[in-house]
Amino acid sequence: MSKVILTGDRPTGPLHVGHYVGSLKRRVELQNSGEYDKIFIMIADAQALTDNADNPEKVRQNIIEVALDYLSCGLDPAKSTLFIQSQIPELCELSFYYMNLVTVSRLQRNPTVKSEIQMRNFETSIPVGFFTYPISQAADITAFHATTVPVGEDQAPMIEQTKEIVHKFNSVYGETLTDPNILLPDNKVCLRLPGIDGKAKMSKSLNNCIYLSDSEADVKQKIMSMFTDPGHLRVQDPGKVEGNPVFIYLEAFCRDEHFERYCPDYQNLQEMEDHYARGGLGDVKVKKFLNNVMQEELEPIRKRRKEFEKDIPEIYRILKEGSEAAEAEAARTLSEVKNAMKINYFEDQALIQEQAERFASDK
Ligand code: TRP
């Protein structure tokens, strides 16, 4: 069986370093591993519209931001198909048929949808499109016969729901769809990087993100103003490493070799953490180190972004070409689905023959 990746992001803002350590970096590694036969990376604009119906301009503006972030992180259109969800009408058709295989109460139990409903104060007026987006996500995944879906932990309920739809479809209509597997980030801290204010999640509305598209000066300013241990008032005080955003970021970004280059007082993160916990290590020194480590990682991304920004029409051309290739793939799957459901009337010679005979013998 061929190995196929499908994943994507909602274009509701530029991507931040949380996206990078949580998924983008991994995608590029998977892409370059040569282990996958096909890779589809989707800008999920239709899904973004399920809770931004009144703000299509936001989605429209951010498609190019996300595309630039993808390309500058190293996703390569020669190896991965980059496409825009709304340009693949087959996904809507698949969703429509899958809707018959899912109950309202099952959707209500989806924990991610549940918490999003609360976050958006949708309790009394949930848009139907939003409520059913896990079904459309199942269409995204199955349309490409994806075997592997690399996503963050919060997406686990979606993959679970997709598997249920696949099993149900295959048991009712015969083996047609491919059962996908989730691929979670391997580094625990990368599951969810906190904001620079120490809040649990980086979010545009909280204004606590470091973006991949931020300038060197912005990144530095954000790191130097980062929340640390509020009890660590003087350098000589013992500090708390656990839950301290600066150390969480270091766990996500730094490797032993960085110490040689930028902070030879220590051999590895453990030694630095021990010193901080003992007392005698100031926040500024740790932050300066983090800044060096992060700038080293972000600089090549920024450089590539600047190059891609020089030819924006070319980026749209890449997305158009990707969308055409993705549509061809989804159309094949839709036709398999319609065959399995026997709603392919005009290709079904046996049906036409059978009906002809029935009416002939009626006479
Ligand atoms: N729900 C994902 C997010 O919020 C985006 C997405 C849409 C997706 N369809 C998908 C991810 C299919 C993986 C597979 O980021």
UniProtKB/TrEMBL annotation:
Arranged from A to Z, the UniProt key words for this protein are:
Aminoacyl-tRNA synthetase, ATP-binding, Ligase, Nucleotide-binding, Protein biosynthesis
* Highest taxon, organism lineage: Bacteria
**Per the record's keyword annotation, is Protein biosynthesis included, yes or no?**
yes
Any one GO cellular component localisation term in the record: cytosol
What reaction gets catalysed by this protein?
tRNA(Trp) + L-tryptophan + ATP = L-tryptophyl-tRNA(Trp) + AMP + diphosphate + H(+)
Q: Name one GO biological process term.
A: tryptophanyl-tRNA aminoacylation
Q: Which GO terms describe its molecular function?
A: ATP binding; tryptophan-tRNA ligase activity
| Documented EC number(s) | 6.1.1.2
According to its UniProt record, what is one Pfam family this protein matches?
tRNA-synt_1b
Query: Is Transcription found in the keyword set?
Result: no
What is the similarity comment for this entry?
A: Belongs to the class-I aminoacyl-tRNA synthetase family.
**What PANTHER family does its record include?**
TRYPTOPHAN--TRNA LIGASE, MITOCHONDRIAL (PTHR43766:SF1)
The name this protein carries in UniProt is Tryptophan--tRNA ligase
